[in-house]
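> call design_seq(struct)
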């Protein structure tokens, strides 16, 4: 983490006082982040992310910074999670049904192109539709598989992605974020104090978090496989034979004559009347 520059903060005049607990010292007018606390917070966030992935829920990665775009796209794709690396569309979480309509519109255009419906329209109309499709793909293509609200947000640079964080806070969605010394950690549920401007620093933190997510997904696959095997064994197992019923019948057989003897026992003879 030292080699990646995770400990470098911002200038002292740009700092946010709420980040004081995570600052180790000041050197040459620059705040130095306490990496011991960074490691502890990464472990805490990784465990929570692992549990979310294990439960089969989605985590949305968000960062529109130039130095973080490619890393976010690569790491999120490797674990099959949605991500946003272009402009954050306002209301993406709070107005999610409208975003879903735009995604469906993109899929409808694909279907019409595959069916050959657009072969009869003019070149100008086809060009307009193609441009619209490209714009939708650029902004919403990475969340095409997100059919419902995500269970968590992972944000790089809370200050730049403040709209996304506010929407998540409003809906009660937990936020995981890399927080630098110039940002407010109070709006984040799982704070990871680290340098959010250096490419190497972002990659180190994302590697640890995505590795935990991958472990959670693998454990989920194993649990599903075990449940499936147990269900198949239960279906193939033969039904037990009714041995107890047969034994009961054998035990009851000799007792039947005794009951009949008691019923058929002769009545006592009546006394003869005395002679007069």
């Amino acid at each position: 983490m030292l080699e990646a520059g995770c400990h470098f903060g911002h200038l002292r005049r740009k700092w946010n006082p709420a980040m004081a607990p995570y600052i180790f010292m000041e050197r040459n007018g620059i705040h130095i982040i306490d990496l011991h606390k960074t490691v502890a917070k990464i472990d805490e966030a990784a465990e929570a992310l692992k549990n979310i992935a294990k439960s089969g829920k989605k985590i949305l990665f968000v960062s529109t910074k130039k130095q973080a775009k490619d890393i976010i796209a690569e790491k999120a794709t490797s674990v099959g999670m949605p991500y946003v690396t272009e402009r954050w569309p306002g209301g993406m979480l709070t107005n999610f049904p409208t975003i879903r309509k735009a995604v469906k519109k993109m899929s409808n255009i694909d279907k019409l192109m595959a069916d050959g419906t657009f072969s009869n329209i003019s070149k100008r109309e086809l060009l307009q539709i193609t441009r619209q499709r490209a714009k939708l793909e650029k902004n919403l293509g990475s969340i095409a598989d997100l059919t419902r609200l995500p269970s968590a947000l992972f944000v790089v640079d809370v200050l730049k992605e403040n709209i996304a964080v506010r929407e998540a806070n409003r809906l009660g969605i937990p936020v995981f974020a890399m927080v630098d010394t110039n940002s407010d950690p109070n709006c984040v549920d799982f704070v990871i104090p680290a340098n959010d401007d250096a490419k190497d620093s972002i990659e180190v933190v994302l590697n640890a978090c995505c590795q935990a997510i991958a472990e959670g997904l693998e454990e989920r696959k194993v649990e599903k496989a075990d449940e499936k095997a147990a269900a198949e064994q239960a279906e193939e197992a033969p039904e037990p034979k009714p041995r107890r019923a047969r034994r009961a019948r054998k035990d009851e057989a000799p007792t039947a004559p005794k009951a009949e003897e008691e019923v058929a026992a002769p009545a006592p003879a009546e006394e003869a009347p005395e002679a007069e």
